[in-house]
Amino acid sequence: MPVSWFVHSLLPGRRRAVAMVALSLLAGCAVGPDFKRPAAPEVSEYNAHPVTSTVATEHVAGGEAQRFATGSDIPGDWWTLFHSKPLNALIEQSLANNHDLKAAQAALAVARENVLAQRGSYYPSVAASFSASRQRQAGTISATPNSGAFQYNLFTPQVSVSYVPDIFGLNRRTVESVQAQEQAVRFQMIATQITLSTNVVAAVVQLAALQAQVDATQELVAINAHMVQILRDQSSKGYASGLDLAAQESQLAQTKATLPPLLKQLAQQRDLLAVLVGEFPSQATDASFDLSKLQLPQELPVSLPSTLVAQRPDVLQAEANMHAASAQIGIAIANRLPNIVLSANAGSTALAMNQLFKSGTGFWGIGADITAPIFQGGTLLHQERAAKAAYVEAAEQYRSTVMTVFQNVADSLVALDQDAAGLKAAAAASDAAKRTLDLSERQWRAGYADYLSLLNAEQTYQQARINLVQAQANRYADTAALFQALGGGWWNRADLAQDKNEK
Fold first, then answer.
1. Residues 154/135, Cβ–Cβ less than 8 Å
2. 5 CB contacts (<8 Å, ≥6 apart)?
3. How far, in whole angstroms, is CA 31 from its chain's centroid?
4. Which of 128, 183, 293, 326 could form a disulfide with 35 if both were Cys (CB 3.0 to 4.6 A apart)?
């Protein structure tokens, strides 16, 4: 019967299906969509009103002006721009010992092995077997061996080969999917490393800020204690009232009360830093950090918006998830099409081990099986629809991630601009509060001002010093946040450069 007659005798729908199968057999293509990387957003700026530099505050640690160098590259070890050897040592220690990072690296190893395992589907499967048995046939039927024996041993070694031709690209799409999943895990690991280094910088900055606040508070405690002693001496001689002495003692007690919370935060920050670098809190370093020992980077590289999506690991992870979802569509389509399995086996069967492989004991067979789903209750159809919906979900998650990334950079740039202005204002307020305190103390000693004015000046100066320290810490911490928002320069690190090349 001619094949052409058979094809034309089918219903139109069946005819199209057979034609599609025939074309796929000839072309050997992979069904489903071929993934294309999303285009970068067509925006030229991060902020509606871009800022090129920040204001400077003289004679204050962290008060240098910062300039935003648009289009400059980010160094892989950006934290070295703070020029602090202890900070560099802590980050290198964290990259070597942090357990969250090690877990992310192990997850990447798992994903890589899954890819290599899946690639095995491209090759034939070869298995060897050997069976040995002793049998007895019923006497009412003819004996199986030529010798006519009813009881005998049977030895059968054989080799079996099976191969599934990837006609519709099921294997290729499956490998493509797991490769994309490996990329997603890789970029998740990179994001973990960037976050870790940023957290170490933030922890060091916060540790230094808390230490500065503790020092400022202890200094104020000493000032207040000295004032209490002066008032006690004056009160004993009748030069000061008991009300003034009680007010100063209350001020001293209130200042002392602010120390325990600061010391608690300082200890907790040391514990956090110890865990980040892979140590137990009991092993935390006693090293102290001073904000004045950290150099604020004055030229900050700012990537072009068109390149940001190729640098941020979370965007690349979302893109890889989108790629995996695209490949899953091809897998779902291929599962609805016929499947062919080619098989072959060869071996030998004998009644004794020494007779194996002699003439007449060998056997072989080859075959081909084709199966095609006809009715699955709509399962395969809805699985295909679900895969397409999952791709739409992944695409929207990608777009959401891109929007968030641009927001991160925009927020960081605004934060640095306002941090500089905030530091300038805090420094001016601290200087003014110190002058007011000095004048109030001299006027009080000379008898030109009451003691309540002096207490008010002390409280104002105390808060101004704390505000200044916090403003300094904000500039350092937000500078590190900008490097993180721009991708952390992972593509310039030797240990991660391979990841970019393999992408």
1. yes
2. none
3. 32
4. 326
Instruction: Name the burial class of residue 471, with classes exposed (0-12), middle (13-18) and buried (19+) by CB atoms within 10 angstroms of its CB.
Output: buried
Considering only CA atoms, give the Rg of the chain. 38
Neighbours of 419 (CB within 10 A): 22
Q: Round to whole Å and give the CA distance between 429 and 460.
A: 9
Q: What does the alpha-carbon distance between residue 410 and residue 404 come to, in Å, rounded to a whole number?
A: 10
Buried b (16+ CB within 10 A) or exposed e, 104-117: beebbeebbeebee
pTM for the whole structure: 0.85
Residues 169-207: pLDDT tens digits? Answer: 999 999 999 999 999 999 999 999 999 999 999 999 999
Of residues 297, 347, 310, 90, the one with CA closest to residue 201: 90
- C-alpha distance from residue 304 to each of 187, 365, 487 (Å): 20, 64, 12
DSSP-assigned letter for residue 300: E
Displacement of CA 353 from its chain's centroid (Å):
60
DSSP string over 413-432 = HHHHHHHHHHHHHHHHHHHH
pLDDT tens by residue, 341-398? 999 999 998 888 888 888 888 888 999 999 999 998 999 999 999 999 999 999 999 9
Dump pLDDT digits (tens) for 29-38: 789 999 999 9
| Cross-strand partners of 153 | 134
Report yes or no: 409 and 74 within 8 Å, Cβ to Cβ. no
Residues 84, 376: Cα–Cα separation, whole Å:
66
How deeply is 502 buried, as exposed, middle or buried, from its count of CB atoms within 10 A (0-12, 13-18, 19+)?
exposed
3-state secondary structure of 350: strand
Residue 142 confidence class, pLDDT cut points 50, 70, 90: low
CA separation for the pair 35, 71 (Å, rounded): 29
Which tokens hold the place of 85?
């050897």
Of 259, 247, 212, 264, nearest to 430 (Cα)?
212
